[in-house]
Amino acid sequence: MSQTITFFLGGEELRVQGISPATTLLDFLREHRGRTGTKEGCNEGDCGACTVLLAHVEGPKNDLVYRAVNACITLLPAVHGHWVVSVEDLGQAPDRLHPVQDAMFRRHGSQCGFCTPGFVMSLAAMHLDGAPVEQAETYIAGNLCRCTGYGPILAAAGDSVAAPEDPAFGAKVRAAKDWLIARRADDDGLFYEHGDERYDAPVTLDALLRLRQDHPEATLVAGTTELGLWLNKDLQDFPHLISPTRVDALTGVDFRPDGTLVIGGAATYEQAWPKLSQVIPEGQDWFERFASMQIRQQATIGGNIVNASPIGDGPPLFLALNAEVELASTRGSRVVPLTDFFTGYKQTELA
Fold this sequence. Notes:
The chain is α+β, with helices and mostly antiparallel strands and 351 residues long.
């Protein structure tokens, strides 16, 4: 049971205490680590200037998986147990650039430069994923540029996609992966306190349900794509946050023998889509328009539903699919048709 936010950054393990759990990753990088390459633009997950990568290992072979996310709406405790990759980690020196940085330079993909680090990180994710150049627009859909017209940036994507792995960055990958594998075996959750603030992230469903029972006033938080705006724009306070994102039972996506697709409430849209697309193969265009890759890799389907926003893009799809919601507590569980789950404006059966 960890009471310290621990993650890998800049080739070393960081153990963080004495800081508010409502601190964003963006503010931590800039104000506490001097990593000012990550920019603050919109501060609501729209412009992509703050894009960083979060890496973790998963599966029986400890495969290394990268997610491009918006640091401005990512809370620091959410990176516990991850490798955080910011733009400072890519190149070694002005004359020793990462292939993506080199391609951006040669293709004149930067003018004012403010958005450039975010684009570089999104293209770095594409390079690390080994994605084809045809997916370049998908990878940078969450990054805005008001100068270049995107042409030079897409040209840089084409150049960099076939570039070999940078040896210097490869060494960082190996060191980070070793750390992630060691940490994975010891993951027993995060229970972090600072003054009157708390952030709890258990790893079992039973522990999560007990926390919810004992602290009904606490706020559940997953991808923070909504709560991040409440923090940054509305300046709301959340003294106690409980996260379900470390509970395996809530992040899985799989078919039952009868063909029913079961999606964990804390699974992100990006996690769910490979199997959800088998249910609605005609939905690829909807999926790519739903949100940027950064948002799809943070936003959870459960969070999108329980938020019950009338402008949410996910619920209409699941209503059309006649989806059901399984609600659980320490008293047991029940299944509710999604059509009955919504009871009013931003109101649900949970209220």
